[in-house]
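Forwarding these from the shared drive since the link keeps breaking.
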Amino acid sequence: MPVRIRFALHGPRHSRIFHMVVVDSTKRRDARPLETLAVYDPQLKPGEDRKTVKWSSQRIKHWLRQGAEPSTSVVRLLTMGGILSPTSRYHQRHGDSTTQSS
């Protein structure tokens, strides 16, 4: 069963929350996830100066070892969080827009 790690949108239109989920790639877009790995709320609350992500790095690494394919946006976030290195195989597959030449 091929699986993907991707973001799922939740919440009202101007207050979106993103869940990083593992989903069977053959299922529909809004299918029930196999597991929720992270919650990312891009909205800053009063008094906060940084956006935060709550994730389980052990479970993310587990799914990557099992062969789950992360989406481009997931690769970018995992690289910023230090879970993936900038030289990982996922960067070569998706291609980084800053390294592509015209």
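-- next protein --
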Amino acid sequence: MSKPNEQSHPYVGMWVIKDGYIRHELLPNGRYDEARGNRKSAYQGRYTIIGDHIEYVDDTGFKADGDFRNSVLYHAGMVLYREK
């Protein structure tokens, strides 16, 4: 599994649902920080990306995954778009 870095991985950055309530920041060091509403850092953990598939493991051990398709992240029933 590869760990992204800021210079080489196109998926590093902020991903948000349409109304902005849920925000996933994919950090260049292979960590993520998820905010929900006014709650910053609601969930944190690590992620790995293989191709267009992402796997998350939060700091409590909970696992989830998702897929990038056509510049959109589909994750756990959510649709996230890159924040510009």
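DSSP finds no helices and eight strands in the chain. The two ends are 27 Å apart (CA to CA).

- D.
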